[in-house]
Specification:
The chain has 199 residues and is mostly helical. The chain has two domains: 1-113, Orthogonal Bundle (Rna Polymerase Sigma Factor, Chain: A), CATH 1.10.1740; 128-199, Orthogonal Bundle (Arc Repressor Mutant, subunit A), CATH 1.10.10. The chain is 70% helix and 0% strand. It has eight helices and no strands. It has helices at 3-17, 21-46, 56-70, 79-109, 129-142, 147-158, 163-170, 174-191. The protein is globular and about 45 Å long. It starts with a helix and ends in an 8-residue tail after the last helix.
């Protein structure tokens, strides 16, 4: 994300803060590329099994719609806040999809669905209750990180920004960004009982 792109997005956020309705759609139009990348990252890392059931573009579309609606009342003050909010909405969409498939699988087991049950051994790991619970807990733990650690973690893990980009956006020294990333990952690992969800 270049300085010029960040400055343009910030101008649109400022216009939104002044109740400029056109700025909301323009913001999402300009940010859709980054939104697609952050959704793809979540899709691949946390919910690989959903890829057999849903197209990335449909997940991006659902996330875009949720953002569009939420931004009617929510006014992220900065570009960083906007993308962190977008990552939150993408997580919600994917968790909702995984939960829906888990319920559907339960109905199939009970013979309550018209859908033909999958052959033995073909169950999707993303819908396994233990796996879903782990990833749900992981994403919830992210929201409890100290502010600076959470900002660095979300920008790198969800948005794929480099440490140099994060340092520029947050006005931090690159070494400080590196320190905060390590601290966040250690805190998350400890909070999940040592489970290596980041590997």
């Amino acid at each position: 994300m270049t300085d010029d792109a960040s400055e343009e997005l910030q101008r649109l956020l400022d216009r939104m803060g002044q109740e400029d309705e056109a700025a909301r759609r323009e913001l999402l139009h300009r940010a859709v590329g980054r939104l697609r990348r952050l959704t793809a990252t979540l899709f691949r890392q946390s919910f690989p099994g959903l890829q057999d059931q849903h197209e990335l573009d449909s997940v991006v579309h659902d996330t875009w719609l949720r953002l569009l609606q939420a931004l009617e009342t929510v006014r992220p003050p900065t570009v960083v806040d906007f993308f962190r909010f977008a990552a939150h909405k993408a997580r919600q969409v994917l968790l909702d999809l995984a939960e829906r498939h888990k319920r559907q699988a339960g109905r199939e087991v009970l013979g309550l669905s018209d859908v033909t049950p999958r052959a033995a051994g073909t169950e999707n790991r993303s819908f396994d209750p233990a796996r879903l619970a782990l990833w749900t807990e992981f994403h919830e733990h992210v929201t409890t990180l100290p502010d600076e650690e959470r900002a660095v973690f979300e920008l790198h893990y969800y948005l794929g920004l480099s440490q140099a980009e994060i340092a520029r956006l947050l006005n931090l020294h690159p070494r400080k960004v590196s320190y905060l990333w390590v601290a966040a990952t250690e805190r998350l690992t400890a909070g999940l009982g040592g489970t290596e969800v980041l590997s």
